[in-house]
Design a protein that fits this description.
This protein is mainly alpha-helical. The protein has twelve helices and four strands; from the N terminus they run αββαββαααααααααα. A hairpin with a 2-residue loop joins strand 3 and strand 4. It is elongated, with a radius of gyration of 26 Å. The N terminus is likely disordered.
Length: 285
């Protein structure tokens, strides 16, 4: 609610009749004479139901509302506005995080709709990262975070065109640069929601390399978080084990040899050892 006294003065004479007025750039007031909290809450619920039906591409629309009731003549109009305004801000604080989470869910859904291959790949990477993390003695909470990071590691590809995502030949240099930006895009998307803060960091780093030749920041060695190294190995292994438009899937033995070939340079040796000697061996038994 805006605190413009002139605007309030103009509204005050209409307080005895129903009134909807714009009081700021994106702020509105609804006056309901002789109405109690029950009516206000029903009106707010009805407005929210209409908002929930509206979709704009990958955005979730939301509106923050608050109300106040003038219960006696001693309560001034300014006090009433302030009370409603405070209620609106409290609502805004509690709802903003869940709204961002819903937006992230919609982005993931849209990415999977753009590319079915990305959907299945992301789910397998999440499961494989979870299995590796479990064998490396992470806590249950950390294991769940790493699984989610694996599932969402390519969320930044929402900004990559379908023609590139589904290209049947190898990417050219410019197309590869477009794809490589997905780490930073994913980080920006996820870091907007506080509950995804750690996951956002893992996703930013999952194409970094121990030898410092990765992207986007050229981190090396211990500068890279262990969860990011886990996702890197899970991502690479699943990519090699899957058919791609420009090549057939590798055999398991060949994929393992490829990982071991680049151990300590492109991939973390401890993570590779855990994948090969614990996760994959367990799956074979």
């Amino acid at each position: 609610m805006a605190r413009n006294n002139q605007k309030r003065a103009r509204c005050s004479n209409s307080f005895t009749s129903k009134l909807v007025a714009r009081i700021g750039g994106d702020e509105f007031i609804l006056v309901l004479p002789k109405s109690g909290p029950e009516v206000a809450e029903k009106v707010m619920a009805r407005i929210n139901s209409y908002i929930a039906k509206e979709k704009v591409e990958n955005l979730v629309l939301s509106i923050s509302m608050g109300y106040a009731v003038k219960s006696d003549d001693t309560m001034s109009l300014d006090d009433l506005f302030t009370s409603a305004e405070n209620a609106m801000y409290r609502h805004k604080l509690t709802e903003s995080s869940s709204m961002r989470s819903r937006t992230i869910d919609m982005i993931m859904t849209s990415l999977f709709e753009k590319s079915e291959r990305e959907m299945y790949h992301s789910k397998r990477v999440g499961e494989l990262a979870e299995a590796i993390a479990s064998q490396m003695d992470f806590s249950p909470t950390q294991v769940n975070q790493i699984m989610l990071a694996g599932l969402m590691h390519d969320i930044g590809k929402i900004g990559v065109s379908e023609s590139i995502l589904n290209k049947t030949t190898k990417l050219d240099e410019n197309e590869q640069k477009v794809v490589e930006r997905h780490c930073e895009t994913g980080y920006r998307i996820l870091s907007s929601a506080s509950e995804f803060g750690a996951i956002a960091q893992y996703i930013l780093e999952h194409h970094e390399r121990p030898d410092g030749k990765g992207y986007p920041r050229g981190l090396k060695g211990e500068e890279i978080s262990l969860p990011a190294k886990i996702i890197a190995v899970a991502d690479a292994y699943d990519a090699m084990m899957s058919d791609r438009p420009y090549r057939k899937a590798m055999k398991k033995e060949d994929a393992i040899r490829e990982l071991q070939k680049y151990s300590s340079t492109q991939f973390d040796s401890e993570v590779i050892d855990t994948l090969v000697n614990k996760v994959l061996k367990h799956n074979d038994n």
